[in-house]
Amino acid sequence: MHSLAQEIQGFSKRNLKKQCTRVTTVTGRRLLERRTDGEEGEEQVEELEEGASQDAAHDIDTLQRYKVSHVLNVAYGVTNLFPDQFVYKTLQILDLPDTDITSYLGECSCFIDDAQEQDGAVLVHCNAGVSRSSSIVIGYLMLKEGLSFDDAYSQVKLARPSIRPNPGFYQQLQSYKP
């Protein structure tokens, strides 16, 4: 059985597709976020029409290609599209600095561990794959692999350079003592 740290190290961003991500702000404003190759920031445009792809969690071909068996959905308001094909765990976590991200780490870690005990592969996703999902994976590496915040953050950043936990999550994880 491979550890999550080994799987992250073996990941290649070249296998990812460009995505548009639908974002609903706290005020209800709806935007589309687009990210281009090598770009740190993102372009945000008002959403004018429905039908933008959410992310890899809605791409059955990608999920099957990577032999994903379990999906940890930590987005708010994102539907699980394939409930008959994958084991889902959904936690509607708000991407707000005052949300206590560490309070979710135990439940998320149990789900990931259960999947790994079944030789499964887990996709952890949120809306954009930038803040919530990366924070959960960083926290998991700290809790289960015994990594320091800096080491866990660096490992996740290496696999997905666009990560950017919100300032509250970042501070909470820096202070987190599993």
What keyword list fits this structure?
globular; 6 helices; three-stranded antiparallel beta sheet; Protein-Tyrosine Phosphatase, Chain A; alpha/beta; 178 residues; three-stranded parallel beta sheet
Topology readout:
Layout: H1 4-9, E1 20-24, E2 30-34, E3 43-46, H2 60-65, E4 70-73, E5 87-90, H3 105-117, E6 122-125, H4 132-145, H5 149-159, H6 167-175
Parallel strand pairs: 4-5, 4-6
Antiparallel strand pairs: 1-2, 2-3
Give a brief description:
This protein is α/β, with parallel strands linked by helices and 178 residues long.
Describe the protein's architecture and organization.
33% of the residues lie in helices and 15% in strands. The protein has 178 residues and is of the alpha/beta class. It has a domain at 55-175: Alpha-Beta Complex (Protein-Tyrosine Phosphatase, Chain A). The strands form two sheets. Strands 1-2-3 form a three-stranded antiparallel sheet, with no helix packed on it. A hairpin with a 5-residue loop joins β1 and β2. α3 packs across α4 and α4 packs across α5 (149-159). Keywords: Hydrolase, Protein phosphatase. Residues 39-178 form the Tyrosine-protein phosphatase domain.
